[in-house]
Amino acid sequence: MLRRIDYGDDDLIITFFTLDRGKISAIAKSAKKSTQRFAGILELFSVLQAVFTRGRGKGLLILKEAVVKQPFSNIRKDIKRTAYASYWTEMISQWLEEARPQAELFHLLLHVFAKLDSGFSTGEELSILFQMKFLALAGLSPSLSQCSICNIETEKMEKNSIMFDLAKGGLVCEKCSLNSFGKIYLSKGTIKQLLWSGSSDFEKAQRIRYTPVALDEGLKFLEAFVPYHLGKQPNSLRFLQKIRKAGI
Ligand SMILES: [Zn+2]
Predict the structure, then answer these.
(1) Fewer CB within 10 Å: C terminus or N terminus of the chain?
(2) 101 with 21: CB under 8 angstroms?
(3) CB 184 within 8 A of CB 220
């Protein structure tokens, strides 16, 4: 479940990310009134097995039945975990078109939810992994291997701290940076860890232990890069950054 909004006094409109149909919206009738039918089931971030029907005409799908497969309730019990999960689901909601299957993205979300729920990895670590993988699947990967102007390889750049230009979608070497207005800087170590996170080797990507510098730089960078490409600052990201600033 990606999103849940009130509809009238009794109903809910829910956005689901399904394995075989991608993003779909459905109405859960009397979900707020009923104490039996959907009680304790329609919770954000949970994985459900659900049955839908289509009403007359071409209206919204109607949720008929639902059972919980994975509740991921530890995410909802913790404000910071909730903030990260909300950001990831909002990214998916904004980017995905209705009814376009994205099985790899579905499994990626399932993976980070399971790790977040178990407390096995932190929200910070998972958020770097999720954002880098998401960008790769969306065909929006940042260009981190070379200067986006003169193509010199990152390895061969002299300075350790390298400018990233959002508008160019890539790194800019020191020589070319004179005519660039990037405000984000990444160190070579961070760039290496980001590249691993986004690589196709998922096993390797999820074993990375980020250095504190890579976590800090990586999150700042991705939380600027992702909204730039979505064309909108997700509300949940504002909330996430607020509670992070408050030291929660
Ligand atoms: Zn250059």
Answers:
(1) C
(2) yes
(3) yes
How far is residue 4's CA from residue 13's CA, in Å, rounded to a whole number?
6
Question: Is the Cβ–Cβ distance between 87 and 236 less than 8 Å?
Answer: yes
* Cα-to-centroid distance, 127 and ligand 1 (Å): 29
Burial of 134 (0-12, 13-18, 19+ CB in 10 A): buried
Q: Compute the distance from residue 233 Cα to the ligand 1 centre, in Å.
A: 29
Q: Which residues surround ligand 1, an ion (CB under 5 A)?
A: 147, 149-150, 173, 176
Please tell me the CATH superfamily of domain 1-71, with its number: Nucleic acid-binding proteins (2.40.50.140)
Q: How far is the CA of 177 from the centre of ligand 1 (A)?
A: 7
- pLDDT tens, 181-200? 778 999 999 999 999 999 87
pLDDT at 35: 65
Please indicate, yes or no, whether the overall pTM of this predicted structure exceeds 0.70.
Answer: yes
Domain at 74-248, CATH from 3.40.50.620, 1.20.1440.120, 3.40.50.450, 1.10.1200.10: 1.20.1440.120
Mean pLDDT on 5-10: 91
Please name every residue paired with 26 in a beta bridge, in sequence order, or none if there are none.
Answer: 14, 61
How far is it, in rounded angstroms, from Cα 109 to Cα 104? 9
Residue 116 sits at φ, ψ, to 5 deg, of -70, -40
